[in-house]
Amino acid sequence: MVKHIVLLRFNSDTPLSTIEEIFSALAGLREKIPGILDFSGGPYDSPEGLNQGFNHGFIMTFDTANSRNVYLDHPEHEPVKQMILPHLEGGIGGVIAFDYNT
């Protein structure tokens, strides 16, 4: 399995309703793209304060690295990315993606 971890730094003026819409669209990819086993995500919630401005994150679990690779270029993934990018502080600099095999 592959864990796909994404941290997002949304602009402070991004409405909560927009963020909820984005996370709903991300969760919906599980029904549209084969190989996604699980999705979870939400706002930063720790007293440590080590988030460096990243205020939301999600984890997708894929059955194989190939399924993750298919997801990255899948036509259903692209509109969701386009929903997210305009709301990131610093554009693409407002996202970190980190994957690992389990």
Please give the share of residues in helix. 25-40%
Q: What is the global morphology?
A: globular
Strand order of the largest sheet: 2-3-1-4
As residue ranges, the low-confidence spans are none
Give the class from helix and strand content and strand pairing: alpha+beta
Taking the alpha carbons of the first and last residues, their distance comes to 5 Å
Number of domains: 1
Largest sheet: 4 strands, antiparallel
Strand content: 25-35%
Count of alpha/pi helices = 3
Radius of gyration, Cα only, in angstroms?
A: 13 Å
Named CATH topology: Alpha-Beta Plaits
- The counted number of beta strands is 4
Q: Which second-level CATH architecture applies? A: 2-Layer Sandwich
Topology order in helix (H) and strand (E) letters: EHEEHHE
CATH class value: Alpha Beta
In round numbers, the mean pLDDT is 97
Secondary structure elements and their pairing?
Layout: E1 2-8, H1 16-32, E2 36-43, E3 56-62, H2 65-73, H3 77-84, E4 95-101
Antiparallel strand pairs: 1-3, 1-4, 2-3
Helix pairs in contact: 1-3
Explain this structure to me?
The protein is an alpha+beta fold and 102 residues long. It has a single domain, classed as 2-Layer Sandwich (Alpha-Beta Plaits). 33% of the residues lie in helices and 28% in strands. The protein is built from 3 helices and 4 strands, in the order βαββααβ. The chain has a 4-stranded antiparallel β-sheet. α1 packs antiparallel against α3. The longest helix is centred in the first third of the chain and has 17 residues. The chain is globular, with a radius of gyration of 13 Å. The N and C termini lie close together (5 Å). The model has no long low-confidence stretch (mean pLDDT 97).
